[in-house]
Specification:
By secondary structure, the chain is α/β, with parallel strands linked by helices. It contains nine helices and seven strands, in the order E-H-H-E-H-E-H-E-H-E-E-H-E-H-H-H. The chain binds guanosine-5'-triphosphate and phosphoenolpyruvate. Guanylyltransferase that catalyzes the activation of phosphoenolpyruvate (PEP) as enolpyruvoyl-2-diphospho-5'-guanosine, via the condensation of PEP with GTP. It is involved in the biosynthesis of coenzyme F420, a hydride carrier cofactor.
């Protein structure tokens, strides 16, 4: 594990980043949130989280493009309107297959691109914090950020010409460490770590300060017009 103060092995700048954001169909997304949100609000919150995540990512000066891998047409249209490129989840074989598919889509067009996977459930994501993570990651072949719970992963980066090799899902922090990826232990990147799976996670994200889509959706709840 490397910390902020340690010497990096390669300080070459990697140039602009491509981010791959996976998103499950909204009808199935964020199922663990149902007890806190109710069944009607849950898919709308899942979309709001993705909009805030993609919007913050696109605001980072280091980010050249954001590729969203999803089969959800509603989410695809909403995220394309923000400036993301939408790629169908053609493998339909789960999260890591979707990320590998997104990686191929990026590298077909930009073979030497630095690339990172970023979960779509980071509604408090702050561009300045993601920028720090990208800058730090640029020094290593592969690097990751563990989630707020300290068990999973919210971000995994691969430098130019380096395969992403994602091992997301459940206790992925240990798998990413075992795979040789460097854990990013920067302080002050809470917004990059705060994924939202449960009601407690949502409360933590709201306390950090969520983006406008999530704030608006949470405040409005499920309006009569949405039913
Ligand atoms: N394209 C794609 N994205 C996925 C898939 N599975 C999970 N994701 C996305 O991967 C990220 C992390 O997934 P989770 O935190 O487990 O989110 P989730 O699957 O919606 O949550 P739960 O239903 O509560 O398990 C989120 O952005 C999900 O939308 C998949 O099979 N395909
Ligand atoms: C996708 C992951 O976990 P979760 O489903 O708990 O967000 C992960 O952390 O790799």
């Amino acid at each position: 594990m490397r910390t902020e103060g340690e010497t990096a092995t390669n300080t070459d700048p990697t140039g602009p980043w491509s981010l791959v954001v996976p998103l499950k169909p909204l009808a199935r997304a964020k199922s663990r949130l149902t007890p806190a949100s109710g069944a009607l609000l849950r898919p709308r919150l899942a979309l709001a989280f993705a909009r805030d995540t993609v919007s913050a990512a696109l605001s980072c000066p280091e980010v050249a493009d954001v590729v969203v891998v999803t089969d959800d047409t509603t989410a695809g249209a909403a995220l394309a309107a923000l400036g993301a490129r939408i790629v169908a989840d053609a493998p339909a074989a789960g999260l890591n297959a979707a990320l590998a598919h997104g990686e191929r889509a990026v590298r077909t067009g930009r073979p030497r691109s630095a690339l990172a996977a970023l979960n779509a459930d980071l509604p408090a994501l702050r561009p300045v914090e993601l920028s720090r993570v990208l800058e730090f990651s640029a020094a290593f072949p592969r690097a990751f950020v563990c989630d707020a719970a300290g068990i999973g992963t919210t971000f995994l980066a691969a430098g130019p010409g380096v395969e992403l090799r994602p091992y997301f899902g459940g206790p992925s922090r240990a798998r990413h460490l075992a795979s040789g990826a460097v854990e990013i232990t920067l302080s002050g990147i809470d917004s990059v770590r705060q994924d939202v799976d449960t009601g407690d996670d949502l409360r933590a994200a709201l306390a950090l300060g969520v983006g406008p889509y999530t704030a608006g959706r949470w405040a409005a709840g499920v309006r009569a017009a949405d039913r």
